């Protein structure tokens, strides 16, 4: 499995060979279904408008697109080749007519989609972002959440703030760092950055992720 190469552009022949499934961390079927079942357990229904930040090649997106009403899935990613791979996956799965909205954007400008969202998700995104990028992401998502909506985001948890030593997470054996990708953060640190963005955060903890990522729920601060 390749790690820390999410910005790499894939060639068309690599996409045809499904190399993108490994580029986004492998466990394609398991992690895709995990995302889908998680949001369903949190109340996602076909009529909802969903924002998937860091959607990649649609590992989870395929399940959401199949489930949601046409045009209700919106995915954003910095890597254009992963979006291209996602479009290939859509065709192969017979889902191209479900009208998913996909854009390439490196500054989390989710306002480009227009309107507001009933739910937002970012799986394995904050694990690859320095803190100032997380603040930008939260600021942009905050502006498009419908009243009462939640932004769910996974992360690698550190036991305390400014945890300078590396951590090995079990299961999965992923090694994370304070100042290098993949990153770990304490809940206190992410509560602080949420406040900077005018949001609050609730820890949902363990959600059966096979590499020990934990889940958070962000909402607009009251």
Outline:
The protein has 222 residues and is of the alpha/beta class. It has helices spanning 12-16, 20-23, 28-41, 61-67, 80-93, 131-142, 187-196; strands spanning 50-53, 73-77, 101-104, 117-122, 145-157, 167-169, 174-176, 184-185, 199-205, 214-220.
Q: Any idea of the CATH class?
A: Alpha Beta
Largest sheet: 8 strands, mixed
The shape is globular
Counting DSSP H or I runs of 4 or more residues, the number of helices is: 7
Uncertain regions: pLDDT < 50 for 5+ in a row? none
Rg over C-alpha atoms, rounded to the nearest angstrom: 16 Å
In the CATH classification, which architecture applies?
Answer: 3-Layer(aba) Sandwich
In whole angstroms, the N-to-C terminal distance is: 42 Å
β-strand percent reads 15-25%
Annotated CATH topology:
Rossmann fold
Helix content: 25-40%
Number of strands: 10
- Mean pLDDT across all amino acids: 94
Number of structural domains:
1
Estimated structural class? alpha/beta
Describe the structure.
The protein has a single domain (12-220), classed as Rossmann fold (3-Layer(aba) Sandwich), CATH 3.40.50.150. Strands 1, 2, 3, 4, 5, 8, 9 and 10 form an 8-stranded mixed beta sheet that branches. The mean pLDDT is 94. The radius of gyration is 16 Å and the shape is globular. By secondary structure, it is of the alpha/beta class. The protein is 30% helix and 24% strand. The protein has helices spanning 12-16, 20-23, 28-41, 61-67, 80-93, 131-142, 187-196; strands spanning 50-53, 73-77, 101-104, 117-122, 145-157, 167-169, 174-176, 184-185, 199-205, 214-220.
